[in-house]
Amino acid sequence: MTWRSPLALVREALRGQRAREKDLRNLGSNLPYEGLEKVKQPNRFFPGNAIKTTKYTLLLFIPMNLFEQFHRLANIYFVGLAILNFVPVVNAFQPEVALIPICVIITLTALKDAWEDFRRYQSDRKLNNTLCFIYSRKEKKFSERRWKEVRVGDFVKVVSNEIVPADLLLLHTSDPNGVCHIETSNLDGETNLKPRRAVSDICISDPEFEPESFNSVVVCERPNNNLNHFKCYVEKPDKEKVGAGIESLLLRGCTVKNTDHAVGFVVYAGHETKSMLNNNGPRYKRSKLERKLNIDVIFCVILLLSMCFMGSVGHFLWLEEFPGVPPYLVPDSNGHLESHGLSGFYMFFTMIILLQILIPISLYVSIELVKIGQIFFITHDADLYDEETDSRVQCKALNITEDLGQIEYIFSDKTGTLTENKMVFRRCSIMGTEYPHKENAIRLAVLEGPESESGEEVIFNQRPQPPQTGWSLHAEDTSLEDMQHHYDNRHKSMVTGSAPSDVAFSSPLETEVIPDRKLLQHISRLESSGSRKTDPYLDFFLGLAICNTVVVSMATAERQRASGFSRTGRTNNPLDTLSNLVKKPFSLHHIFTSWKNKPKRSGTMSEDSVVPEEDYFNAPVKIDGSGNTDGLQTCSLQAPSHSNDPAMTPDNVTYEAESPDEAALVYAAKAYGFTLLARSPKSVTVRLPSGEDLVFEVLDTLTFDFNRKRMSVLVRHPITKECVLYTKGADYAIMELLSTPYAEHLRGKQKNIAADTQHHLDCYAKEGLRTLCFTKKVVSEKVYESWIDCRQRALAAIDNREELVMETAVQLETELTLLGATGIEDRLQESVPDTVVALREAGIQVWVLTGDKPETAVNIGYACRLLEEEDLVINMSCKSKLECTSILDCTLEEVRRYSEDPRNVDTSQDIALVIDGRTLTMALSADLQDRFVDLAKHCRTVLCCRVTPLQKSRVVKVVREKLKVMTLAVGDGANDVNMIQAADIGVGISGQEGMQAVMASDFAISRFKHLKKLLLVHGHWCYTRLANMIIYFFYKNVAYVNLLFWYQFFCGFSAATMIDYWLMIFFNLLFTSVPPIMFGIMEQDLSAEMLLGVPELYRTGQGAGEYTFTTFWVSILDAFYQSLVCFFIPYLAYQDSDIDVFTFGTPINTIALFTILLHLSIEIKAWTVVHWVIMLGSVALYFIVTLAYSAMCVTCNPPSNPYLILQSQMADPMFYLLCIITTVVALLPRYMFHVLRNSIAPSPLVQARRLDRLDTSTRDEWMKEWRSFRGLGQVRRSRLSTPHSTTLETPADIYPQSPTASDIMADDLTLNVITENYQRSVHM
């Protein structure tokens, strides 16, 4: 190794720092420099792949850990006092003794930190020594190396089912199309496969990639923690730039699937990889209770300084009373005595040392232990375990458990949080004609039968089905109830839509679609007529099958997941019965010819297309009897396959989508015979109902983003050879881009396709369905060539790449042709209405922040009981800031006028506010923000619709800061991360959208219903336990310290003590340390059943809660009283006797122990064996340790020694009499206060505890009666009159009868008020 001067090393380090801080990095291959020393390596400035997550090293552990622990002011305080005790003029007792408490605390903390760091070291070592394949130029092959040997610029080969060791730019895969599938569950929890494709035109040595032929330069951005974005381009030797993005990056920690092998170029390694940059460890937040605690500690410091000042002044006055020099004052070596003033000054510091435990040193450690115990009980609660996903609640923020008991506002996402995020295809509209899919609705209704195990609800199917809804094949009088009765007799166990499946979005509920009879007939006529080249109906289904990012895989592929159903075995699903009933041996030709005489329907949604007909389908339909991946049979238009290749069999195809919407649409297209068979970066294959396979060349994919609210796929049609752009997206994002040439060839009402489709979309939204529009555009070759040049430049850009790419997408997505729209149902989660009602009864206001349409949000609001039938619903949809101002002013004026009316003293308004994103932006502006918050404060619930992720977080911050309330945000997707991080507590739901929300959250649950017990039970317990424990800790320390303070009045304020120093230390360190910790972990003031049955009990923790300024000072005053009693009763008993100082102090110490422990016994509400063992064990430990110490301590504390003091005391009856009388007198006021308060004016908690002691049946009856009584006596509901304002352009409308959601959301209205019952009709 060549010696280098220190100056050269410094220069090299500075160059490396500059290289790492550059916005762009130029990376070259390491192969030409293999074997050379490090200084000659081109990528030497970038870190290696070895990771180190430990905080300490073996040599530096002690100084680094001490430095970290001394960041706590409490530790610095006690160490400072221990050092001060070494100064002779101010020391209170033996210097070594003063070090014991702080040394014990620091040592225990250091051992805990060492164990945690050792576990991190073991994990790092295991990961760094994992084997991988790195290409070696000397060996001419990929050789096994360890992960820690990977460097930036290396070529790494990853085989199937292996984890990627570093961030790799994908250059080559075993797939001919250059595709590699990865699973990112280690990063974001998503189990669906994601395709990654190799950088185009780089690999020139197919079929085997030769890394030595790679002579390009990779230019990439600086490392960042964004998992969804990556800027890079590859510059070839001829200076041609090939752009690459996140679609070509294999992230460290991902697993390669469905690909034999992949070769990548290392761009980031070690701590610069995106996964490591996202590894921030547990979140730290300071709880509301902890902030109050810090204030009370300051009060204790003030109290301590006051007592020490009194001691200093008292010592000065004591000395001044002596006419001469007291004989016990010893002069220094020079014979001089200190002045009285200086002695008083020194005594101030001595008193601080003596009374130091007034500041509770062990409180912070005890709080940490209590929170660990609370988290253990939360995470091991069986009611919070989800069997379907095999997941339990996770606590990521370890220090805010008590905040769960103080929540006042909950901000919730809708999709995936209140709903299942299991998308079910329900209806569609094509070219202005609506197809209600009544047959499929029957199937879903059957799955919702009384024997169904799913327990899920169809959102828009809240009312009973019509009794005469016939659907049989040959008779028209068979009702749905009759058929369900038939199923109940035949099937005792049903396989429902909620059956777990390991394949994403592939339960029978989502995958099985029974086609609409009329639409099926229309598609068949088109197939038979051969007009599939330009027909919009076929284009619609091609759009469903093509316009997505669904990954197609084989059921027999390498990554085969365990399926919940056998492909050949029979199941007891009701769908089998339905299929068997309609299965007849008729040809497709006979089926469709039997429908030729059916009357045609108009282009708009007619009445018979909304309300179920009596005759659903009377003609037989051919059933695809071949087993599919779920073992179920469905009505379809599949033609028999003529290929023996299993890869081309639709029944063997499985789909994995990044979102459930895409999966539902692909399965819907498959039900009509348009089967997505294969997808690669360059092509997509669709099988038509006729059995013909169409292979579309994929020219480009314009992915979805939150700004455009749409995605597009540009393909070359295999028949017409035209460039066709298929686009899908939200209706408001699509409608403004339309141009409908199809309408030119239509007649009558069908000409206004856009208006009819919009009407259907509004009806879908009323039913709570999620809507999407589908369009088509034929792009000329000239336009395509011009556009693709701009596209390539945008993709190769580094600066503003996202903006440029989005501009090219917007440039192409114009003049679109509307094909149709779809309505997909997102089913409500189990027990959501019950949870919402319980939370509102608990005094928590629930807001919903969603990106859906207002109509959909309102429907979901009624379904989950956020909105009640008697609620006053105010809709704010403003086009200008003036309108928004007028609505806020007039509504607030009406609210104030109502509250000031003396006739409304005992009433409150049940108001709900519905506001869209555009109006919300105006309402959150600086001049309207206070008015909006004031209005929202009077609302029971607020629904914010069409909001962006940034708007969600803004709403949470504004409400939290303006109202000074505790907030909780709950969501399940990446768009909820900002909201979750903005709230005091963030809760992530591990649902269908991955784990981004969970990773950013403080707590993670698997179902919204778990929020009920998490808050109402565990939140209440955690808060009351910790609040009462902290108050008890302050009381305990003040009561004990005051015993020493009262003694100073009788010893000249000389800082002498009547208790042995060791016993003083043991008192807080051993004898009274465990009971309060046990109290904080195991106390239950009420049972879980009572807290869930009476949610109003949760209100006790909201606002100021139980830990208030008053409760703190009352406990301090009680401590002063008890210390006076514990000191002066023994003092009076032994007055004028000749006992020594320790004989006087030992009974006081014993009485203090009994008083402090019995004080805690009064506060304990639920006694268990653990309580008895710890309480009695503390008393036994005191006597054992004190007896042993007094027996062994002969000369350990000269000149006074506690030798056999306790033994002689226990032989004296006076000792026992003092212990009994003094303890009773000390605790009598507190006991009497509890008795009188609980008897004369019992709180709701006390009343609930009385009910809790009854047997279960009696308690439940009393609980129902009490709830009904409290419900009648709480608040009378009222309705608000219409606000009147002369400034409004359009007067506010009042709906005198059942309004529809579309009426509520009319565009020309600025304010709508609903005052009557909201009824939802059933649409099939």
Automatic annotation (TrEMBL):
Record-annotated active site: D413
Entries under InterPro entries matching the protein: ATPase_P-typ_cyto_dom_N, ATPase_P-typ_P_site, ATPase_P-typ_TM_dom_sf, ATPase_P-typ_transduc_dom_A_sf, HAD-like_sf, HAD_sf, P-type_ATPase_IV, P-type_ATPase_N
SUPFAM superfamilies: Calcium ATPase, transduction domain A, Calcium ATPase, transmembrane domain M, HAD-like, Metal cation-transporting ATPase, ATP-binding domain N
GO BP term, pick one: phospholipid translocation
EC number in record: 7.6.2.1
GO molecular-function term, one example from the UniProt record: ATP hydrolysis activity
Keyword list, A-Z: ATP-binding, Endoplasmic reticulum, Magnesium, Membrane, Metal-binding, Nucleotide-binding, Translocase, Transmembrane, Transmembrane helix
Catalytic function, reaction form: ATP + H2O + phospholipidSide 1 = ADP + phosphate + phospholipidSide 2; a beta-D-glucosyl-(1<->1')-N-acylsphing-4-enine(out) + ATP + H2O = a beta-D-glucosyl-(1<->1')-N-acylsphing-4-enine(in) + ADP + phosphate + H(+)
Cofactor: Mg(2+)
Transmembrane segments: 73-91, 97-115, 293-318, 345-367, 1029-1049, 1061-1082, 1112-1134, 1141-1160, 1172-1194, 1215-1233
Classification via Pfam families: Cation_ATPase, PhoLip_ATPase_C, PhoLip_ATPase_N
Membrane topology note: Multi-pass membrane protein
Main location: membrane
Annotated localization: Endomembrane system; Endoplasmic reticulum membrane; Membrane
One GO cellular component term noted in the UniProt record for this chain: endoplasmic reticulum membrane
Main enzyme class: translocase
Protein's UniProt keywords contain Lipid biosynthesis: no
Residue ranges annotated for the P-type ATPase N-terminal domain, each copy included: 43-97
Binding site for Mg(2+): D413, T415, D972, D976
Domain P-type ATPase C-terminal, first and last residues per copy: 998-1242
Family classification: Belongs to the cation transport ATPase (P-type) (TC 3.A.3) family. Type IV subfamily.
The name this protein goes by in its record: Phospholipid-transporting ATPase
Origin species: Eleginops maclovinus (Patagonian blennie)
Species classification: Eukaryota, Metazoa, Chordata, Craniata, Vertebrata
